[in-house]
Amino acid sequence: MGDVVVSLDAELSWGYHDLEDAPPRVDRAREGWRTALDLLDRYHVPATWAIVGHLFLDDCDGRHDDHPLGGDWFSCGESGDWCAPDLVSDVRDAAVGHEIGAHAFSHVPMNESWVTDAVADAEFRCCQRAAAGLDLSLDSFVFPRNWIHYREELAGNDFTCYRGYRPKPWYADSRARPFLKLLDYSPVGRWTPVVEPTVDEYGLVNIPASLYLYSFQGRVRELTERLGYDPIVEVAKRGIDAVADDDGVFHVWLHPHNILQPGGRERFAAVLDYAARKRDTTDVTVRTMEAVADDFL
């Protein structure tokens, strides 16, 4: 049978430090981090925590002499969370057995024109070195903002797998995409976002994403709640059922701070509860990215 995989982009303030505006919930990102840990523990679900490498450090004076980026890039300031070895340790020490992966060293978006081979290599290399300071080695990687580039450099820094792009849904190129998406996320929809990991030309295992757990928010979510269902939970149950009946991977992802949105905790809990019940009553397994990748290496 198949696998359910949960991955979290754990970035605290780094996720928005290059942007002018950040959502207010980022200021409470530590709370979201701990809430996510509590929920995963409650349902005994191991997850891959893709953590920004700088968070492994105890402190920072803004100097990283072996990293090509300098100046304002590492000038974190007094506000925000730029180092969090305590939170990393909480993930490492959790009884459920999470995997700690990487989300780049300083959340460099790899698609930007100013990113060079040297910058990408430093982002990967500095992650491994920072993790080694906590007696950890990293296998899984999640690219910032899901822009996948520099895979050769990633492989050269001892990573073994990454979260790949979600396959396009059948309605992706349709002019009626918004309507068809809402229809397919409804109780009468049929789309089942199951993915198949593959080994790329660099020997890395590509474990594609299936579903972002917070892609339906705002007015659309309010409307569907009035109709008595959560579209994301609907599709998540469909995906979990599919891998309980057949092979493949159903790979959901989120940020810990997403849980702080209205209804965010309830949505994540509903998905974890369903996955746990299927795990306990069928042959489906809940595994980390690293564990899935091991099957291909």
Give an overview in words:
This protein has helices at 29-42, 85-93, 117-132, 151-156, 177-184, 218-226, 231-245, 264-281, 289-294; strands spanning 3-10, 48-51, 99-102, 140-141, 161-164, 198-199, 205-208, 211-212, 249-254, 285-286. By secondary structure, it is an alpha/beta fold. Strands 1, 2, 3, 8, 9 and 10 form a six-stranded parallel beta sheet that branches. Strands 4-5-7-6 form a four-stranded mixed beta sheet. Helix 1 runs parallel beside helix 8. The chain is globular and about 55 Å long. 44% of the residues are buried.
What multimeric state do the chains show?
single chain
Strand-pairing-aware structural class = alpha/beta
Q: What is the typical, i.e. mean, pLDDT? A: 91
Terminus-to-terminus distance? 19 Å
Q: Can you summarize the main beta sheet? A: 6 strands, parallel
C-alpha-based Rg, rounded: 19 Å
Portion in helices: 25-40%
Approximate shape: globular
Overall number of strands: 10
Any low-confidence stretches, pLDDT <50, length ≥5? none
Summarize the helix and strand pattern as letters.
EHEHEHEHEHEEEHHEHEH
Number of helices: 9
The percentage of residues in β strands lies in 5-15%
